[in-house]
Design goal:
Number of domains of chain B: 3
Largest sheet of chain A: 7 strands, antiparallel
Number of domains of chain A: 2
CATH architecture of the largest domain in chain A: 3-Layer(aba) Sandwich
Strand order of the largest sheet of chain A: 6-1-2-5-4-3-7
CATH class of the largest domain in chain B: Alpha Beta
Largest sheet of chain B: 5 strands, parallel
Oligomer: heterodimer
Chain lengths: ~280, ~475
């Protein structure tokens, strides 16, 4: 049984859940994800694994309540069970020793940076994290990131904390004389697209962790297909991380809106408005 | 019981399976073939010649004792007939519906040389339905066996019959399924209007009642590796992970919104039940759907699209005679008003500025010399291009073996993704066996079951041999 051991509200929309999943806890690596269904009528949705404790047999994930299924997940309480949870899925993040690594995250994507940044640091890199949020109050996992990286810089859209602007603007302002050896990015598609175009100019190898629509998460449906370097790839089994300079972000953005109308209907019909300010 | 045996009448016409009226099928997932009624059963069973050498039994990949069960049916002993089938198969309700009888038992049936063959599939199905209605279908619950532990990967037809055979030999059998529902392709691929879920689930429950343990949401290769399963005490592993990797058409516009692989389309509807209002999984079915392909998945997808309100066309690059789907499904599709456009293939898909499909370019084909499959090869006719307006396209052009386990297990030798096995069914790893579509590529339920049965035998032999050797090696092997 995948029972919820701990629930923490990180922002009005974002919730952290620690769940019993002993086998996933034993085998996960940074960059992996799981597929869950919060109720027996739910869609299967992918969520990044943020942390895992093999000794305790638990994993941690972070969910942003934006659609019906994520709202239902965010509304789960400590002691509740998640009926279906499968993983760890996907290929782990590329972690190498290159000297200096920049980890860039926006919104809920910041949660995935935590394990990846930690893995880069353990591999012997100096790790800088550049993270974005709309305002100071919406920053998540600040202490964790501070501990997992050598330096963490925040950008807020309204300038209420850290740099006034978005992460890409902060990257431009921050750029050291010697650019980092590798960049890992995760966040909203427009952010990842902008990061990729900037780092292409910089000439720095960049990986983006993608978030397409998925069903089974094991390579069976092809719903998550993305075009990378002109080739069709299945993000669930070949990704979710790809060379950011090769990803067709426009196509990904379009495909992720495939069910926008149906999602809106479902969200509006769903009575649970928990946590939505 | 009296000894008055009813008279055989092979010349009676082959009984036609009653079906739901085509108009009523339009918007329901209800089963189309409703099955024989009682009166038909006797007539059909008495058509059987009761051959001395029943060629139908040889032709059945499972060698079901068709002669014996039909004989019992001819004598009115339906429960006995069901018992007879159940000695050899856990899936009479499933196979009675989805097996391609016309390619095996019914093709061999001697009566078919001059008249129509006995409707063996429909009789098999009747037994299962009768037993289910009578509440006999559950089988006696047994104590959990105590023999060696065996892991079966995937819960499709190959693993399920292996589970059935191994649990009856006293092995402790665990089935590991990646998805949240059991049944593999029977659950995600085959629509309920062909195989109602209660039939499938009840036959799976029967296996659980016999002591088979099921683990859902467990992806071998990810959740645990094969090596870990051995370390946890499993003494043999069977891989029956099927062919779930969809092939893509490789034409421009394939990633537009509204273009599905048959796997995604069917998984959304069958497994995730997108057709039910209560289900949260959406599916996008527009006004006009084109399904590309000529196999069972193509028929299944087309019939769903039609049920979900779309004007539906099946586009197939060869002719009707070359369709690979079960004949019954083709006929049902035709009855339901699905259009067939033969001898044409897709060339490109067009969309609007938001990425939604709007049209499909096709090209006419003619049949040329036979290709490697033995069927006439389709050859494009230059200058015959044409365009149609569509908003949903489903590519049902076949699938390859699921790659996940192979990727996680580099020791497994594969050939273009298919796991390679030796004559005994063993893979390149000792104690690891494989069968069904993961070995064959896209094949059929019944051949997967044949493989599962062969693998169960091979596992039994291997473990017995190992046990004999193990004594000298001082290795402890459970009985």
């Amino acid at each position: 049984m995948n029972r919820i051991l701990k629930r923490r509200q990180l922002t009005p929309e974002i919730v952290l859940l620690e769940v019993t999943a002993p086998r996933v806890a034993r085998r996960w690596k940074p960059g992996n994800f799981i597929i869950i269904r919060p109720t027996p009528e739910s869609e299967r949705i992918p969520l990044t694994i943020v942390d895992g404790d093999a000794g305790k047999g638990s994993i941690t994930m972070v969910v942003q309540a934006i659609g019906k299924t994520t709202m239902q997940t965010a509304a789960l309480r400590e002691g509740d069970a998640i009926p279906d949870l499968a993983g760890p899925l996907g290929e782990p993040a590329t972690v190498e020793r290159v000297g200096h690594v920049l980890a860039v995250g926006g919104g809920v994507g910041v949660a995935e940076l935590l394990p990846v940044a930690g893995a880069f640091r353990r591999a012997g890199n100096y790790v800088t994290a550049i993270c974005g949020a709309r305002n100071a109050g919406l920053r998540i996992l600040q202490e964790g990131l501070a501990a997992a990286t050598d330096e963490t810089l925040w950008a807020t859209d309204d300038g209420s904390a850290g740099f006034h602007g978005n992460v890409v603007e902060l990257m431009q302002a921050w750029k050291p004389a010697t650019p980092p050896g590798l960049i890992h990015a995760i966040g909203p598609i427009p952010m990842m697209r902008a990061v990729a175009s900037l780092t292409r100019e910089w000439g720095v190898r960049t990986y983006a962790s993608l978030n397409p629509v998925m069903i089974d998460g094991t390579g069976m449906c092809g719903g998550c297909r993305v075009t990378v370097g002109g080739k069709v790839r299945f993000a669930c089994v070949e990704g979710p991380e790809f060379d950011a300079h090769e990803v067709d972000f426009d196509e990904l953005a379009r495909r992720n809106r495939a069910y926008a109308d149906k999602e809106k209907e479902a969200r509006e019909a769903h009575p649970c408005r928990i946590g939505l300010g | 019981m009296g000894d008055i045996r009813p008279k055989r009448n092979p010349k009676a016409p082959r009984q036609q399976v009653p079906v739901l009226e085509a108009g009523r099928r339009a918007s329901t997932p209800e089963e189309v073939a409703t099955g024989f009624v009682e009166d038909q059963v006797k007539i059909e069973a008495l058509r059987c010649l009761n051959c001395k050498n029943p060629v139908c039994v040889d032709a059945c990949p499972l060698h079901l004792d068709i002669k014996a069960f039909i004989d019992r049916m001819a004598n009115g002993d339906i429960a006995g007939a069901f018992e007879k089938i159940s000695e050899q198969s856990p899936f009479p309700g499933v196979c009675g519906r989805v097996c391609q009888h016309e390619l095996f038992c019914e093709k061999a049936c001697l009566l078919g040389k001059k008249l129509d063959p006995v409707a063996i599939g429909s009789l098999e199905r009747y037994c299962a339905d009768y037993a289910r209605a009578a509440g006999d279908g559950h089988g006696a619950a047994r104590a959990r066996p105590t023999g060696a532990k065996i892991a079966l990967v995937g819960s499709g037809p190959a693993s399920m019959i292996a589970a059935f055979d191994l649990v009856r030999k006293g092995y402790r059998v665990s089935v590991f399924e990646a998805l949240h529902e059991l049944g593999g392709v029977l659950a995600y691929g085959i629509p309920p209007f062909r195989l109602p879920r209660e039939i499938l689930n009840q036959e799976i429950d029967r296996l659980a009642g016999m002591g088979v343990e099921f683990h859902r949401n467990f992806i071998v290769g990810k959740t645990a590796t094969i090596d870990e399963l051995f370390a946890e005490g499993y003494e043999a592993v069977f891989i029956g992970t099927g062919a779930g990797l969809p092939y893509l058409m490789g034409i421009p516009g394939e990633n537009l919104i509204g273009v599905y692989t048959a796997n995604e389309f069917l998984t959304r509807i069958n497994l995730m039940q997108a057709y039910r209002k209560e289900s949260d999984t959406p599916v996008r079915v527009g006004r006009r759907t084109y399904v590309i392909g000529g196999g069972n998945s193509a028929m299944d997808a087309a019939r769903w699209a039609k049920r979900l309100g779309s004007e539906t066309t099946v586009l197939f690059r060869r002719g009707r005679a070359e369709l690979r789907a079960r004949l019954e499904e083709v006929e049902h599709a035709e009855q339901e008003g699905i259009r067939f456009e033969f001898l044409a293939a897709p060339v490109a898909i067009h969309g609007d500025d938001k990425g939604f499909v709007t049209g499909l370019d096709c090209i006419r084909m003619e049949l040329g010399a036979p290709d490697s499959s033995g069927r006439p090869s389709p050859v494009p006719i230059a200058g015959s291009e044409y365009s149609v307006e569509v908003d949903t396209v489903v590519a049902a052009i076949g699938q390859g073996p699921n790659p996940t386990l192979q990727k996680a297990t580099p020791e497994l030798i594969t050939n273009r993704g298919k796991i390679v096995i030796d004559a005994s069914g063993q893979t390149s790893m000792e104690g690891v066996f494989a069968g069904g579509d993961v070995v064959r590529g896209g094949s059929t339920v019944i051949l997967a079951m044949k493989d599962g049965r062969a693998a169960a035998d091979a596992i039994d032999r291997a473990l017995k041999a190992r046990r004999a050797d193990g004594v000298s090696e001082g290795r402890e092997v459970a009985q």
